[in-house]
Amino acid sequence: MTSPPSIFRLWLAALLCWAPLALADDLATSWQQAWPIIVDAEAPAYRLTLPSEVYATLHTPALADLQVFDSRGRAVPTLLRPSGPAETAEEQRQAVPWFPLPLPARSEARWELVAETDPSGRLRRVESRGVQPGSERGDGAALVDLSGLTAPVTALELEWEASERPVDSRYRLEASDDLERWRPLPARGRLLDIAHEGEQLVRRRLELDAVSPRYLRLRPDDGSPPVELSGVVAVTRPPASLPEPEWRVLAGSPQGDQAFHYRLGQRLPVTLADVESEASYASQWRIYSREHEDAPWQLRAAPWTGYRLADDGEVLRSAPQPLRAPSRDRHWRLVSTSWSAEAPPGLRLGYRPEQLVFLAEGEPPWRLAAGSARESRRPAPVEAVLASLAERHGAGWQPAAARLGEAQPLAGEAALRPPRDWTQWLLWGVLILGAGLVGGLALRLLRS
């Protein structure tokens, strides 16, 4: 005979085995579709760009029905954020002209700087007059010419000749565009060139906050020994830019005089609009959108002039029109002032795919589930964790890249049907049961 403790242990083991199955069953019955997430390396967080097939599955306008799950069906902290800048190019290094200057003047020291520039602003000659009392020459301070650079400077790498004397110095920087007015710049870094027991530590870099002055002036901090420079290298990084937008062309149907209706079947974050036509035209346009057919139309862009004209074999088109705010509405409307073609024009809607970021919690592999009228993404402090990771790894840190595998169908269209509300049925059942009990009591009283 099985003892009560043994029965309790069997019941507990069965409950633990059933819990993951219940989570997996909930995932399979509450979500329309899922995709396996493929990662190439271990990382604390991952990011992936949403493809169009995910947007086609989503149900809610705010994209709340989008959640990452681990292999046991547990929700993982997930964040949806706008499309980030395109991947920036690698750092570029370029040697720049520099000129030695006297050390900073103290109380009774006097010196002046005489510079000669060419028409483009580049320095041809720098002459310093006057030196610090008690010294015949001042080394360590330098004037750097950045006028030949087009990208912002993110760092300076200083070069000096190797010597037996160790280097341990701090420098401060000033910026100017006319060699007359100077402003201090925050610079991070310490110049080091030290050796001990066959090991050597060298640091030549001064970090900057992406500045674009024409000239820089370097000076040792008070109390820091000067460094006999032999060269200056400017480190630049091309500015980050947004990725090119993707486009969807919708076919329209007439809706009154000079008005056309379109329906967008995906929850795309539309930010641009344009008119598509094979025929030449020139017209003023207005664009509206709304989520439901019975909702009022909302103006999404100020009236603009769109055209498509031929010029000596070349087709000239008007630029796409930016919307006042991103929109995911289902219904769109174009209104023209002078559309003469028989067929409705096409509506081009532009968007930049958003990024989904999730933390590496739970047991991989992870899955992305989308499309549900019953479930929604759970709030999680993902932004705070990302900020902490960026502070630890550096400002340029990003979550590791991930991608989606082949789609896996789950509940399909059934996941888009709202769950039944059993509250009213339950209330009616309680009322009927209560009425039956009261009737039974009354019958017993009559019989007695």
UniProtKB/TrEMBL annotation:
Pfam families registered for this protein in UniProt: DUF3999 (PF13163)
Official protein name in the record: DUF3999 domain-containing protein
Keywords: Membrane, Signal, Transmembrane, Transmembrane helix
Species name: Halomonas alkalicola
Residue intervals passing through the bilayer: 425-446
InterPro entries: DUF3999
Stretch forming the signal peptide: 1-24
